[in-house]
Design brief:
InterPro entries: ARFGAP/RecO, DNA_rep/recomb_RecO_N, NA-bd_OB-fold, RecO, RecO_C. Belongs to the RecO family. By secondary structure, the chain is α+β, with helices and mostly antiparallel strands. The longest helix is centred in the last third of the chain and has 19 residues. 35% of the residues lie in helices and 22% in strands. The strands form 2 sheets. A 5-stranded mixed beta barrel has the order 1-2-3-5-4. It has a 3-stranded antiparallel sheet with strand order 7-6-8.
Length: 243
Amino acid sequence: MEGWQRAFVLHSRPYSETSLLLDLFSENEGRVRVIAKGARSKRSRLKGTLQPFTPLLARWSGKGEMKTLHTAEAMTLALPLSGRYLYCGLYVNELLSRVLGQEIPFDELFFDYLYCLQGLASATGTPEPVLRRFELAVLGHLGYGVDFLHCAGSGEPVTETMTYSYREEKGFIASLVLNQRSFTGRQLMALSDREFPDSDTLKAAKRFTRMALKPYLGGKPLKSQELFRQFTLPAGPVSPSQE
């Protein structure tokens, strides 16, 4: 199937009267922007296909920043995300849309993304471990290298009970100062293994990935995070009958 690529829709918006402008995340070319001409028309074969979380086989062409989508077929049904897992999926899509340059291959990250969606679709508890592993994978593929297992000051292996301060572009340095940049050796070992056995290591992982991703995201807030906050906030006072 020459010219076909596996891809997912990261974001879509109307373009002209009947078309869609899509950001795709593809296996071979990374993030690609394409125009799906006529995709919004009632008779379009693509209607209902170009949805987030649906594994696609797609073909496009063009030499500029905006390609033209020729065809797309769903490989399977969309991965079933609902409730908070849906908002987590939207966050993952927005994160990739924001941090990836156009047409830069990230073939390994493509599978990290797929495994992340599968993890969210099958999750029954907190989605936090799945999200933290994916964020760490994104940082790794962007070339953000950090040694979690050695003190950047001395080169000595970290110890579980020692405290280390995070320094951008340097790593973790042993320090007795406790603040938002402080991590225990145990937390750093969990980050290195990408395994978070308890709430302490999960919270530490979230704190680290927020700091590490900030330079890539800039000052503009993520829309998906605001949507999730609105989703989780109570709608109003709860009456006794609702308790």
